[in-house]
Amino acid sequence: MPKVAVYNKEGATVGEITLSDAVFGAEVNPGLLHEVVQMYLANKRQGTADTKTRAEVSGGGRKPWRQKGTGRARHGSIRSPLWRKGGIVFGPHPREYGWSMPKKARRAALRQALSAKVKSGELIVVDKFELEAPKTREVATLLKNLKVDGSAFIVTAQEDANIYKSARNIPGVRVNAARNLNAYDVLAASKLVFTQDAVAKVEEVLG
Question: What does the record list as coiled-coil region(s) (predicted)?
Fold first, then answer.
């Protein structure tokens, strides 16, 4: 079973925690993780890109010039894709890009993503972190004490509005509750910062 150190909010080591082998010690399947990440990215796409076909552009009510006798190529409409400001042939149109995967596959990918972070030493566990009111400085100080200088994903046991509001002004820092985790968010962050309660909650949900 993997073990990681537990820190306090000052960055000092205060103990050690043994992680569940089923959740944080799973074998990593790169193919599954790739597929899940592609799914989350596709589901984020708005799909609002749109181009006009020759039926939608303006103009073209009459033939530009007569069929014969001008020495120029024959044309029937200035809406033709051959013309400047004409219609677009194979351009994008609004559509849904997303797709879904089985729940078992998504949960397995989340276990593997967490396991990969543990193996690479990118999981940090804090004994407790609570705020009485939103204070960005408190979150910034915590990350500095933990030597987190890249993107970070802070995971709490339950939704915490104070921590969320405090972290949203810090570039590259995200906050979410343990029950809302997904493989993409886990892999996208340079460091994961879990509270001890959040670790227990994730093991309860995924174990």
Answer: none
